[in-house]
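Suppose you are handed only two things: the residues of a chain and a line of SMILES describing flavin-adenine dinucleotide. What would the bound structure be? This form records exactly that question and the answer produced for it, so the two can be stored side by side and reused later without any lookup.

QUESTION INPUTS
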Amino acid sequence: MKRKVLIVGGGIAGLSLANALELLCKDKVDYQVIERQRQFSPIGAGIALPANAVSALHQINLEQKVRENAYHVQQIVFTDDAYQVLSNRATDTLHPKHFPFLGISRAGLHDVLLTGPIPSKIQFGKTIVHLSESNNKVLVTFSDGTKDSYDLVVGADGIRSSVRKLSNQDIDEPPLSLGITNWRLLLKKPKTLIHPTYVLGAGSIFLLFPISEHEMYCYAGVLTPPNGISEDERKSIHFMKSHFEHIGDEVKAALDQIIDPSQLIPDQLETVREVKTHSLHMKNVLLIGDAAHACAPTYQQGGAMSIEDAVIVAKLLNAFDALPVEQIIKFYDNFRFKTIQEIQTLSNFVLQRSVQAIDPQSIEARNQKIRQDGPFNVTFWKEYLKTDVFDELDHFIHTRLN
Ligand SMILES: Cc1cc2nc3c(=O)[nH]c(=O)nc-3n(C[C@H](O)[C@H](O)[C@H](O)COP(=O)(O)OP(=O)(O)OC[C@H]3O[C@@H](n4cnc5c(N)ncnc54)[C@H](O)[C@@H]3O)c2cc1C
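ANSWER OUTPUT
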């Protein structure tokens, strides 16, 4: 009999899981997706997909489609606030299987994830209001009053996950602020911008990231002052621009393109306080993506890990179809927990530290380290991408099957 799986949330994690189950577990799993919103409006303008994200997309046959809609990144450049290059490094040779680094609009990625039969499996405007467990089944009450039971419920419902909260008997802690305010937006790409460029200022960071021949995704982050930033300030173009006016001409030219507050996506960077891949109180509930491990976008691993999580879950469900779901969740934890905990901790620490450089001495120390070691994200990728996670997973599965 097929296993019945409920995926809560139709973001990158939930839709990647739907694709992975469709491809890898078609005869073994029946799944459905519920999405709280009435229609999709992917948040975040653009997204950088490091090679491990592209490797995960390859596992679910979506690499090619994403490539066709994306910008191929060949190099990462870090500059100081005068746009003087501190260091640059190539990205094409970082992955053992030479998967590329890509930049794409969020909407473009979502469109790719919504291909084939996936849209017909999604129920919009629906959420969960209660979870309980009985006889190895999760009993779910939905917001429309209906009830159903599942072999596995996957919380792919983002940083404010209801699955995490409801399955932990409501004792779950709210996300933690990382003390960084940011804005994301899509702008016209200047012809001269070839490589993603990080401009590091005093208490600020501005990223110009090409996502097509004519478009770029920008991420602008500043240290949130101790007395906070009001909602009105966050939405104000003038306020946003005031933090970056003193830095390189290329950033000024980008800022000149911002004429309407609706172009800005303001946000506060937050993290989940503690990585939780499984529910503390329910055996058949698993968390993936931001619901489990939301963190700072330092190494662009949030979306990347979400796609990896999804493929790993599907591969484990396929390989261990005779084992109880509880055991599969334990395998997932054994394989995954340590890595995502390390990435989360490092991502939060490194971004906070580099934005916290405000006085000339700490700015010079930060810049000097980048001159010596290279861009801090490339330094991370060099180590992390030495092995392909799916080769490791195949080995993990093989040793447990034999
Ligand atoms: C400023 C910033 C820049 C980033 N840049 C990058 C980057 O360049 N590269 C990268 O890889 N990552 C990046 N990330 C991280 C990345 O955006 C996230 O890790 C990723 O979107 C997580 O996907 P998700 O599906 O887990 O969660 P989400 O994207 O939050 O999706 C959750 C979905 O679940 C739905 N939902 C929520 N609650 C419920 C509910 N109760 N019931 C039903 N549905 C529900 C939501 O409507 C949403 O559709 C960045 C993050 C930030 C904040």
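WHAT STANDS OUT: The chain has a mean pLDDT of 95. The CA atoms of residues 83 and 107 lie 30 Å apart.
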